[in-house]
Design brief:
The chain contains three helices and five strands. The chain has 116 residues and is an alpha+beta fold.
């Protein structure tokens, strides 16, 4: 699962950990520590995510739930104030997924036109 917040981009997977843990991965170390301050982060320089931490599933659920409870912005990318590079990455993701939406919309328009 990919998770973008205004504090981090992380990938959460069930890999290389015990049944009560999840593997939290990030490209930037602080993205893990921003969300999981007590996590023991290790570096994996040759992997697709340079940083990883094994985190208890219950902790992951609690952190995500608390984040949702405290959510106070209306546009994610506009809520990122202290890291311009991360803001720009989030904006690029928004643009990429918008293209996906446009393709889907145009496909549906064509399909609806043909069915008339």
């Amino acid at each position: 699962m990919w998770l973008y917040t205004n504090k981090a981009f992380i990938s959460i997977v069930d890999k290389d950990c015990s049944p009560d843990e999840l593997l939290v991965q990030a490209r930037v170390k602080k993205h893990i520590t921003n969300l999981f301050p007590g996590a023991k982060v290790y570096r994996t320089p040759n992997a697709n995510y340079a940083y990883r931490a094994r985190v208890l599933r219950d902790t992951v659920k609690e952190v995500i739930s608390d984040y949702i409870d405290d959510l106070d912005y209306d546009i994610l990318k506009n809520s990122i104030h202290d890291d311009q590079k991360f803001h720009d990455v989030c904006a690029a993701v928004w643009i990429a997924t918008y293209q996906l939406q446009r393709c889907d919309y145009e496909t549906n328009i064509r399909a609806n036109y043909r069915s008339r």
